[in-house]
């Protein structure tokens, strides 16, 4: 990575968690837009321009692409529903061109690949580092919406996601999920009752 022009790798001595690692990268960067990507992604040709085009809209704070498993099933096309009852759209459905092919405003999008705006960091802040794994992106998306911005799924951008490719320990993943979900619920429950957003 060091040999790539314009790339500044950041190596952590230990696993600091997704939120902290992303925050270190966001703080070190200087670009107008921030693209956060998991290590278990494979980009397809032309994936980036649609994300950037969507991010240029002043009301959009977060954008997510269409995520497809290596065997051709959808694993990320946005979360819809209500704050109290979110619905993960399309999980496990075949990746067909007639499914989920329109941009849509969402509650949240998958954190495997997110587009953000640097200019909004002073207002929205960075990822909440109480999360080690899971719900970091959900929290950030909810925070963006709480502040009046939109979170948008952009199907023209497509990446292949090897789900949980960066951590194969199922027991540990389950523990992270339970801990993060409890923290997320505790943090946002009062806000849900105070204001619909």
Secondary structure elements and pairings:
Elements: H1 18-28, E1 33-37, E2 41-43, H2 48-55, E3 60-68, E4 74-76, E5 79-81, E6 86-88, E7 104-105, E8 113-117, H3 121-124, H4 136-146, E9 150-161, H5 170-194
Parallel strand pairs: 3-9
Antiparallel strand pairs: 1-8, 2-9, 3-4, 3-8, 5-6, 7-9
The helix content, as a percent range, equals 25-40%
Q: Count the strands?
A: 9
Q: Average pLDDT value?
A: 93
User: What's the architecture in CATH terms?
Assistant: Alpha-Beta Complex
Structural class: alpha+beta
Radius of gyration: 16 Å
Tell me about the largest β-sheet.
7 strands, mixed
Which segments are poorly predicted (pLDDT under 50) over 5 or more consecutive residues?
none
Strand content range = 15-25%
The domain count comes to 1
Shape category: globular
For the record, what CATH class applies? Alpha Beta
Q: Output the CATH topology.
A: Spore Coat Polysaccharide Biosynthesis Protein SpsA, Chain A
How would you sum up this structure, described in words?
- By secondary structure, this protein is of the alpha+beta class.
- It has one domain: Spore Coat Polysaccharide Biosynthesis Protein SpsA, Chain A, CATH 3.90.550.60.
- Helices cover 30% and strands 23% of the residues.
- It is built from five helices and nine strands.
- The strands form two sheets. Strands 1, 2, 3, 4, 7, 8 and 9 form a seven-stranded mixed beta sheet that branches.
- A hairpin with a 4-residue loop joins strand 5 and strand 6.
- The longest helix is centred in the last third of the chain and has 25 residues.
- It starts with 17 loop residues before the first helix and ends with a helix.
- The mean pLDDT is 93.
